[in-house]
Amino acid sequence: MTTATTFKNITLATLLAAALSTAALAQMGPGGGGMGPGGGGGMRFSQSNTPGWTLMTQQERADHMAKMRATKTFEECTQLQDAQHQLMQERAKEKGVTLNVPRQNGCNMMKARGFFK
């Protein structure tokens, strides 16, 4: 193999790797992978840690995540979380399903990660 062909192959492989990395990073969504305030996002809300996740529409999930991330105090967070849990409890009862129990309290996790003073 000639030096020019080798250089061409290395260049193509590098460009392909860069293109694939960009696509993967673009799919991280709002907040990226940061851990706290000012760190690019932080909390990840999902079916495994949000009671009623499967009972919410995509828009309701997005709204809930935005509201949770916008809370300024632990008390505000717990009030929002309690109201959301109550709403999802009512919705689950109407549909005859049982809500999942979160493994951890979202507000406690946010507090531990420095989201609140």
Automatic annotation (TrEMBL):
Keywords recorded for this protein, A-Z: Signal
Superkingdom of origin: Bacteria
Protein's UniProt name: Uncharacterized protein
Residue segments, region Disordered: 31-51
Leader sequence residues: 1-26
Biased composition regions of type Gly residues, renumbered to the chain: 31-43
Organism in which the protein naturally occurs: Rhodoferax fermentans
